[in-house]
Amino acid sequence: MLRTKTCGELRKVDVGQSVTVCGWVDSRRDHGGLVFIDLRDRYGKVQVVFNPAVTADAALHELAGTLRSEWVLQVTGTVVARSDKDVNAKIPTGEIDVAATTLVVLNRCPTPPFEPGTTDLPNEELRLKYRYLDLRRPRLQELMQFRHRFSKLVRDYFDGQEFLEIETPMLGRSTPEGARDYLVPSRVHQGTFYALPQSPQLYKQILMVAGYDRYFQIARCFRDEDLRADRQPEFTQIDVEMAFVEQEDILRMIDGLVAHLMKHIRGVDHPLPLPRLTYREAMEKYGSDKPDLRFGMELHDLSTLVANSGFSVFKETVASGNKVRGLCAPQAAAKYSRKAIDELTNFVKDFKAKGLAFFRVTETGLDSPIAKFFTPEDQAAIIAEFGAKAGDLIFCVADSYKVCSAALGALRSRLGKELELYDPLEMHFSWVLDFPLFQWNEEEKKWDAEHHPFCQPMPEDVQYFDSDPSRIRATSYDMVVNGYEGASGSVRIHDPALQQKIFDLVGLPMAEAESRFGFLLDALRFGAPPHAGIALGLDRWVMLFTGCDNIRDVIAFPKTQKASDQLTGAPAEVEPRQLRDLAIQFNLPK
Questions:
Q1: Which of 16, 95, 136, 470 could form a disulfide with 116 if both were Cys (CB 3.0 to 4.6 A apart)?
Q2: Each residue's pLDDT tens digit in the chain (590 positions)?
Q3: Which CATH code fits 161-274+432-538?
Q4: Same CATH topology for 12-107 and 295-418?
Q5: CA 139/CA 57 separation, integer angstroms
Q6: Cβ neighbours around 429 below 10 Å, total
Q7: Looking at the domain 12-107, which fold is it?
């Protein structure tokens, strides 16, 4: 080993020892020949002192005078105690220094585009280009260490529950699973393609047929879809499947995982079972199927109250069969100027709302440009509906139920954050159940699977297949963590006839289903047990547990929001020879 100690482990009990440490120069200070270096590795920092009064080695001190940020050093010296006035209580090694006796420069570094120790970070694009410098930052090193620990806790939990971790293929067949596939051309079988897995869904079902009744995997997945702060084209999920179980067994198993993580990460005994609400309840109360339940601010339906009001927009909306829904932001009247409310109005328009009505609640009623259209009795009824108090701010959207839900759900999330209605370090977990099995695709005039086409319908809803598919609920479940979808799963279909019925409804004829899913359908015919599963987004969970708001911070080598790798330049063109080997020719638009 080139070192006997790491930079972060030295303490006062080590005083008098001769040690060798290695690391990067975090900072350098020259006090007239007396040179101080903060040497950094992933374990911490230690101050190294080059003192001519201690070691009369001219070459040593001359070399020390040339050191610069991010040079890689090997230093041997004696651990010495600092005087009381020089103790730095902010770092674990703040009571000691290393008095250098020898110095080896292992590598030099040109002036970096930014220094890992700076608090004034450059833009993300530059940091991703020089990700190896960015990853030296103590904060990112903490995040990578936490991610390692989190993954180990997950493995420990499932191992303790007799699960087997089984790897599934990266190169598989393209199947319709919602997002676009990343395709890999085959050189051996020219004209054909593998697909990178969007999830191990089909393989884990086959594992259940094969008798491996408790499977999990920390799996790499790939989806070619539009990106955002909590989404990446390649991501990691905790994949789980169980045989001979019902929905309740999956919920209890993941409840136990949550308790295990909270106990070992936060040191708390998290109460179980986790709260549950139906999809319908979530949409009614919060306008979202992934509501942040760290705060209240529920949505209310005002349609009946305003159906006969003098405000024509509300009146005509209700008369047309649509809704007027709203929420009440506590003590927000003074915090949002008319200009700020105009900005919120533009915000809800992104969710197809035509506008945003508002009322400031006063001691005497409602104050708003449209308040004059409402009688004192109308105003009192609106205030009573929300249980509003003076100083509150009521927002309303008049539109279809779907638009009202989307606009107010997004507005609720934004107001909750801006009004600081919750502790950002709090972790709240809940289940949303009874999702619709199908959603109507207006553009293509057909039914699509809400989650995926392998979800078991509620037995009591099978009767609606021919009459009203919108009424069919899936035996599916999502876990919501702080307003994010933290996990999603379902009881699977193990009956081939029912599976084909689903395919028929989503417009997948038997011949095409056999062509694309024949291997799965065959497996289901060969003694498939009842089975169910779930997948948890590991990157997102790490982001939430660490208080980050960007998933790229918890991935060592992430892509940008345009799915590019700033470090390597991927995606990139390849050699013509490689294309010839694959029999690929481009016909790009000019």
A1: 136
A2: 899 999 999 999 999 999 999 999 999 999 888 999 999 999 999 999 999 988 889 999 999 999 999 999 999 999 999 999 999 999 999 999 999 999 999 999 999 999 998 888 899 999 999 999 999 999 999 999 999 999 999 999 999 999 999 999 999 998 766 678 999 999 999 999 999 999 999 899 999 999 999 999 999 999 998 777 678 999 999 999 999 999 999 999 999 999 999 999 999 999 999 999 999 999 999 999 999 999 999 999 999 999 999 999 999 999 999 999 999 999 999 999 999 999 999 999 999 999 999 999 999 999 999 999 999 999 999 999 999 999 999 999 999 999 999 999 999 999 999 999 999 999 999 999 999 999 888 888 888 888 878 899 999 999 998 899 999 999 999 999 999 999 999 999 888 788 888 888 888 888 887 887 788 888 888 999 999 999 999 999 999 999 998 999 999 999 998 899 999 999 999 999 999 999 998 888 77
A3: 3.30.930.10
A4: no
A5: 37
A6: 22
A7: OB fold (Dihydrolipoamide Acetyltransferase, E2P) (2.40.50)
CB crowding 558-590: b at 16 or more within 10 Å, else e = bbbeeebbbeeeeeeeeeeeeeeebeeeeeeee
| Residues 516-522: contacts with CB under 8 Å, at least 24 apart | 516/173, 516/174, 516/175, 516/176, 517/175, 517/202, 519/173, 519/202, 519/206, 520/202, 520/205, 520/206, 521/496
Query: 101: which 2 tokens?
Result: 């006796």
Model confidence pTM above 0.85 = yes
In angstroms, the CA 375 to CA 309 distance is: 8
Listed by start position, the domains of the chain span 12-107, 161-274+432-538, 295-418
The CATH code of the domain at 295-418 is: 3.30.1360.30
